[in-house]
Amino acid sequence: MSLIDSHCHLESFVRQQKLGDTLARAQENGVTQMICIGTDMEDWQLYHDLARDRFAQGVLDLDATA
Questions:
Q1: In percent, how much of the chain has pLDDT > 90?
Q2: Res 62 pLDDT > 80
Q3: Label partner for 40 (CA 20 to 30 A): which of 12, 24, 50, 60?
Q4: CB-based contact 58:51 (threshold 8 Å)
Q5: HEC profile for the chain?
Q6: What is the pTM of this model?
């Protein structure tokens, strides 16, 4: 079975240098896709970099203030 984590916050794992372990654990448990949620404007660069470096899909910026 393939699972999608439809609401995850990866920034704390990046800052704690635990992203690799976290992604491996998710994959071991059947998670094949993640929708990452940023809660602060400071998160956008981090998620942009993650999308560029690790993921194929990219980032959709839904900033309602723009």
A1: 21
A2: no
A3: 24
A4: yes
A5: CCEEEEEECCHHHHHCCCHHHHHHHHHHCCEEEEEECCCCCCHHHHHHHHHHHHCCCCCCCCCCCC
A6: 0.72
